[in-house]
Amino acid sequence: MRKIEHIGIAVNSLEVSNVLFEKLFGEPAYKQEEAINQGVKTSFFMNGFNKIELLEPINQESSVAKFLKKRGEGIHHIAFDVEDIYSEIERLEREGFQVLGDSPTKGTDNKLVIFLHPKDTNGVLIELCQEIK
Ligand code: CMX
Asked: Please, which residues bridge with residue 8 across strands?
C-alpha cells in the first residue's frame, strides 16, 4: 500500500455537495462518473496532490445508501493505491483481514478495487485500488 489514493465521502446529494466542495477548493470537480456495479454516482476533486471522491447512492440497495441511513453524511472510506492488487489481497488475507468479495471489480476513475471489512480495521472501510493500465 503505497499512499492514500483518495478519501471517499458519502453525501445525500451530489448536486448540493458539488457546489459546497467547489467553494471549499476553489475549483470544480474534474470528473463525474456513475458506477452502476458499485451502486453510486461520484464526483472527483483534486486539492493539491490529494483526491476527494463524493459518493451518492443510485438505489436503496447500495451500500452507500445503507451507510447514509445508519450514520448520515461523512467519511465513508479511505482508498490506498497498490501496485499489484492481487498480491496485496493475498498478503492481507495471510495477515487475517477479511477481504470483501472474491476478486477485484472495476471501480470509478479507471481503477480495479476491493474492500476490507471495517470491523477488522478499527471501524474504517479500507479500499485497495490499482490503476488499470
Ligand atoms: N465505514 C465504517 N463502517 C461501516 C461502513 C463504512 N463505510 N459501512 C458499513 N459499516 C458498518 C456498519 O455501521 C455496521 O456496523 P454495526 O454492526 O456496528 O452497526 C457494519 O459495518 C455492518 O454494516 P451493514 O450496514 O449491516 O452493512 P453490510 O454488512 O451489509 O455491509 C460492508 C457492510 C462494509 C460489507 C459493505 O458496505 C461493503 O461491502 N462495502 C464495500 C463496497 C462499497 O462500499 N462500495 C461503494 C464505494 C464505491 C467506490 O468507491 O467506488
From this structure: 53, 77
Beta carbon of 51 within 6 Å of any ligand 1 atom:
no
- Based on its alpha-carbon atoms, the radius of gyration of the chain, rounded to whole angstroms, reads 15
Q: Are 130 and 108 in contact (CB under 8 A)?
A: no
> Whose alpha carbon is nearest atom 25 of ligand 1?
66
Nearest CA to ligand 1 atom 8: 67
Q: What pTM did the predictor assign?
A: 0.95
Q: Which residue out of 31, 38, 66, 106 has the highest number of ligand 1 atoms within 8 Å of its CB and is therefore the one to mutate?
A: 66
Residue 115: what residue type? F
**Cell numbers representing residue 66 in the block:** 445503507
Report pLDDT digits (tens) over 44-59. 999 999 999 999 999 9
Query: What does the alpha-carbon distance between residue 119 and residue 133 come to, in Å, rounded to a whole number?
Result: 32
